[in-house]
């Protein structure tokens, strides 16, 4: 290294200028005493009180390699920290959204199922028996049930349906909203309508989640629908008798075809409804459809979803009621083969579908419309 007098003088002058600059900074920013280097606040992602004004001072601007760089990097670090750390306000808002989805879904499911309960009970009776289905036979069954057991017997098993449907619908609608948000963030569609495949996936996941958590209640409801009042007096009686006489494992008998049926049913129902709302928004220019339009969209969704999953619904009902209808407990494939062998593929696996085409669109239309209108109402009340 060269140590000539000129180079020593040059180094001395540089050191003098640097020390003067440091002194001027410490004079203009006394609040940084004890903080170490002037870079200390930037490293830890926040500035001490009053530092923002210091970064605008001439001394900070004259610091070699600093000035705007310090200010920009500080702001950037603070913005990143704010984006990562959860805000209490956002957390409260998320909790409100979940609660409003649960409440809206519960009411939607209760109204929809109560409206079609007599038709649903008639459909189940035909599904689990070997009788040939026709519209004439279905209405005859409804009429004789009314004559022999009274008007309210048409809603027999509806209390068990409510016990199942209220949590099922609440979980399904709430889970669907959450899955939409998660998939929207994942695919970069935050606040916008999801593309087709994530839309289908959100519905399928919501249905699977709800079915998994409420399945025993569905089995109890099916048992109450096909048995006389003398056999099971109430919901708790069904649980006690099944666990005592058939074992707790029976409460999940038929679970596999239920899940296999729920995936296309819930997936296609939510997919169809959300797609029709999106197309309506695009072509009508109105942000929200009218209630009767929502009913039509929901009816189309129910028609498509139930038609796609109906054979598995027949298998599920046959497996759920095997203990009280004389059919042996069997696997999905064995039950499927038995139905086809005894009644034929189309006649057996699609028995009662015309009844479903009547009740399904009504129920799904009511549930989707009620959920949407309740969400709008709760948002207005919150704001």
UniProtKB/TrEMBL annotation:
It comes from Nyctereutes procyonoides. Mitochondrial carrier mediating the transport of coenzyme A (CoA) in mitochondria in exchange for intramitochondrial (deoxy)adenine nucleotides and adenosine 3',5'-diphosphate. This is Mitochondrial coenzyme A transporter SLC25A42. Signal peptide: none annotated. The lineage of its organism: Eukaryota, Metazoa, Chordata, Craniata, Vertebrata. It comes from the Eukaryota. One of its GO terms (biological process) is transmembrane transport. Belongs to the mitochondrial carrier (TC 2.A.29) family. It is a multi-pass membrane protein. The keyword Transmembrane applies. Solcar repeats lie at residues 96-182, 194-279, 289-377. Keywords: Membrane, Mitochondrion, Mitochondrion inner membrane, Repeat, Transmembrane, Transmembrane helix, Transport. It is found in: Mitochondrion inner membrane. Pfam families: Mito_carr. The keyword Repeat applies. One of its GO terms (cellular component) is mitochondrial inner membrane. It catalyses: AMP(in) + ADP(out) = AMP(out) + ADP(in); ADP(out) + CoA(in) = ADP(in) + CoA(out); ADP(in) + ATP(out) = ADP(out) + ATP(in); adenosine 3',5'-bisphosphate(in) + ADP(out) = adenosine 3',5'-bisphosphate(out) + ADP(in).
């Amino acid at each position: 290294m060269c140590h000539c007098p000129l180079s020593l003088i040059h180094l001395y002058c540089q050191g003098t200028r640097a020390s003067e600059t440091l002194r001027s900074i410490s004079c203009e920013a006394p609040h940084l005493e004890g903080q170490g280097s002037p870079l200390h606040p930037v490293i830890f992602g926040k500035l001490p009180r009053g530092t923002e004004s210091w970064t605008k001072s001439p001394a900070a601007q004259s610091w070699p390699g600093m000035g705007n760089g310090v200010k920009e990097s500080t702001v950037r670090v603070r913005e990143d920290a704010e984006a990562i750390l959860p805000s209490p306000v956002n957390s409260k808002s998320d909790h409100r959204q979940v609660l409003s989805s649960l409440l809206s879904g519960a009411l939607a499911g209760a109204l929809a199922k109560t409206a079609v309960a007599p038709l649903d009970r008639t459909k189940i009776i035909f599904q689990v028996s070997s009788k040939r289905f026709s519209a004439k036979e279905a209405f005859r069954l409804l009429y004789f049930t009314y004559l022999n057991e009274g008007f309210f017997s048409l809603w027999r098993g509806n209390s068990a349906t409510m016990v199942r449907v209220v949590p099922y619908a609440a979980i399904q609608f709430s889970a669907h909203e959450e899955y939409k948000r998660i998939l929207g963030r994942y695919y970069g569609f935050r606040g916008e309508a999801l593309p087709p495949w994530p839309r289908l996936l959100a519905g399928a996941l919501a249905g699977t989640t709800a079915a998994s958590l409420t399945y025993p209640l569905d089995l109890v409801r099916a048992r109450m629908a096909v048995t006389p009042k003398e056999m099971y007096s109430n919901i708790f009686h069904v649980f006690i008798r099944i666990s005592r006489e058939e074992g707790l494992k029976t409460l999940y008998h038929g679970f596999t075809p239920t899940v296999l049926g729920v995936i296309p049913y819930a997936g296609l129902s939510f997919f169809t409804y959300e797609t029709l709302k999106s197309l309506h928004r695009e072509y009508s220019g109105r942000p929200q459809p009218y209630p009767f339009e929502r009913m039509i969209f929901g009816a189309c969704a129910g028609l498509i979803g139930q038609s796609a999953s109906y054979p598995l619904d027949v298998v599920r009902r046959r497996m759920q009621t095997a203990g009280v209808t004389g059919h042996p407990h069997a696997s999905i494939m064995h039950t499927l083969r038995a139905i086809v062998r005894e009644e034929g593929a189309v006649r057996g696996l699609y028995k009662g579908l015309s009844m479903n085409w009547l009740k399904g669109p009504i129920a799904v239309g009511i549930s989707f419309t009620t959920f949407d209108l309740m969400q709008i109402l709760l948002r207005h009340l919150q704001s």
